[in-house]
Specification:
280 residues; alpha/beta; Helicase, Ruva Protein, domain 3; Rossmann fold; 2 domains; seven-stranded mixed β-sheet; two-stranded antiparallel sheet; binds glutamine; nucleic acid binding; RF_methyltr_PrmC
């Protein structure tokens, strides 16, 4: 089949499904599978081998069934870098980039520091920090073996084996991290209130791991554990940087936070909602 005919069919399949941005998604699937730039799709019209067409049709059909585009492509972009993703790991979200950006304001390129990324998932936060500041070293922690497999793939893809240790751990209280050894701890924990899980968009609810999303009562389950266990892992003056669900949760966290925490910053997301909070 010729490229333009392939494009037309894939677009049609996605337009007929309820997938968001059907034309864009079709072109992205085709360009990734064929290793072509998206602009090349506009003017080329080569004959595409049958096997490649089949691969592309099957990816398009998955997207049409509602599988998130990042899972179909097995790839997501975060902070300008590529991360491998698939079932069992949270797809990196753009608002989380703002948490990385904030951390880099405190620890800019060249400033040495050691950190932990709790609930590392794909490793997107930890690896972006390491790529942006070559003087950092980190520990990525997750309780999900599946997530850690993706983090390991991404650590290898970005050749950061020497600067990121990946650990399986579920309990902040049992973290195998030396007391007073970290300059900062950063986390985008599961924070969706349990009661709101059923109301998530089907594309999220039916595909992404609930373990990475469900934050228990009020979405606060893990933050409570962080507050109990993290202060002793941090050096004096160390920072805790957290993503949250938004303003209501930030208020709840401010009430819960230990009295020795000093508020450093609150950060708005792209929708103007307070999403991240930083304490010293
Ligand atoms: N740290 C990863 C991310 O921000 C995973 C977060 C999670 O699983 N809750 O995408």
């Amino acid at each position: 089949m010729k490229l333009q005919e392939l494009r037309r069919r894939c677009r049609e399949t996605l337009v007929l499904s309820s997938a968001a941005r059907p034309e864009y998604s079709a072109d992205l699937i085709i360009s990734r599978r064929l290793g072509l730039g998206r602009a090349e799709l506009l003017y080329k019209d080569d004959e595409i081998p049958a096997q490649a067409c089949e691969g592309i049709f099957s990816m398009t059909a998955k997207r049409a069934r509602g599988v998130p585009l990042s899972y179909v492509l097995h790839e997501a972009e975060f902070y300008g870098y590529r991360f491998k993703v698939g079932r069992g790991v949270l797809i990196p979200r753009p608002e989380t980039e703002l948490l990385v950006e904030a951390a880099l304001e405190y620890f800019p390129s060249g400033r040495a520091a050691s950190f932990a990324d709790w609930c590392t998932g794909s490793g997107c936060i930890a690896l972006s920090l390491l790529l942006e500041n070559e003087s950092l070293t980190g520990i990525g922690v997750d309780k999900s073996p599946q997530a850690l497999r993706w983090a390991t793939i991404n650590r290898g893809f970005h050749r950061l084996e020497k600067r990121l240790v990946l650990l399986r751990n579920a309990e902040p209280a049992e973290a195998p991290v030396g007391e007073g050894s970290l300059d900062f701890i950063i986390s985008n924990p599961p924070y969706i209130p349990e009661a709101e899980m059923a109301g998530l968009m089907p594309e999220v609810r039916d595909y992404e791991p609930h373990m990475a999303l469900d934050g228990g009562a009020g979405g606060l389950f893990l933050y409570r554990k962080f507050f109990e266990s993290f202060p002793r892992l941090l050096k004096s003056g160390g920072l805790l940087l957290l993503e949250t669900a938004g303003e209501a949760q930030i208020c709840a966290l401010e009430d819960m936070a230990p009295s020795e925490f000093v508020l450093m910053n609150k950060i708005l997301d792209y929708n103007g909602i307070i999403r991240h909070i930083i304490w010293r």
